[in-house]
Amino acid sequence: MKRYLRPTVLLITMSLCSLSLLAQKQSINNFHFLLGKWEMKTKSGKVVERWVKHRDSLTATSYQFDAKGDSVLTEAVVLKKIDGTWHYCVTGFEKGNEGKTNFKLVSSENNVFTFENKQHDFPQKISYQNKGQAELLAWIEGNINGQQRKISFPYLRRE
C-alpha cells in the first residue's frame, strides 16, 4: 500500500508546485484586462472600480455611490510583485473593513486570477475573471463562522 501512496503523493505535490509556479510567471501584461473604469449596479446605487497601469504595477480605487451620486472611497488596491510573487495588496476604508491586507497569487487558469490569504478573517480568496472587453467578474470567498461564503461582483466597462 505504501508503494502506491508515495508516487501519488509525489504527483500531487509536483502538480501543486507547478500550478503555483505558473501563477507566478505572470507579467504585468497578463493583468491588462483590468485597466479602465468598471461599474456594478447595487440596490443602493453603484460601485465604481478604476484600474491604472504603472511601470511595474497596477493600482485601483473602489468607490461606493449612493442614489444621490454621493461617493465614498471604500478601498485602494496595488497589484504588484513582492519578492518575485504577485500580490493583491488592498487597503480598506469602510467601517469594519479598515486596514491593509495582502493576498498572494495562487492560481491563474482559464482567465481567472485567484489571490489568497488563509490567515485573513474574510475573505480568504479574491478572484478576477477576464470575461472579455466589456465584462469583468470579481468574487470574494472564504469561511465565516464555519460556513463557506462567496460574494460575486459583476462589473461592466464604462470607459
Folded structure, characterized:
By secondary structure, the protein is mainly beta. The chain has one helix spanning 2-24; strands at residues 36-42, 45-53, 57-66, 71-82, 85-92, 99-109, 112-116, 125-130, 135-144, 147-157. The radius of gyration is 18 Å and the shape is globular. Mean pLDDT is 88; it is low at 1-23.
What is the C-alpha radius of gyration, as a whole number of Å? 18 Å
Kindly name the structural category. Answer: mainly beta
Kindly report the spatial arrangement of strands forming the biggest sheet. Answer: 1-2-3-4-5-6-7-8-9-10
The geometry reads as globular
List the secondary-structure elements in sequence, H or E: HEEEEEEEEEE
Write down the overall mean pLDDT. 88
Give the N-terminus to C-terminus distance in angstroms: 59 Å
Instruction: Report the major sheet.
Output: 10 strands, antiparallel, barrel
* Number of distinct helices: 1
**Got a strand count?**
10
Unreliable sequence segments: 1-23
User: Into which percentage range does the β-strand content fall?
Assistant: over 45%
State the helicity in percent bands: 10-25%
Question: What are the defining features of this structure?
Answer:
disordered N terminus
Write the SSE topology.
Blueprint: H1 2-24, E1 36-42, E2 45-53, E3 57-66, E4 71-82, E5 85-92, E6 99-109, E7 112-116, E8 125-130, E9 135-144, E10 147-157
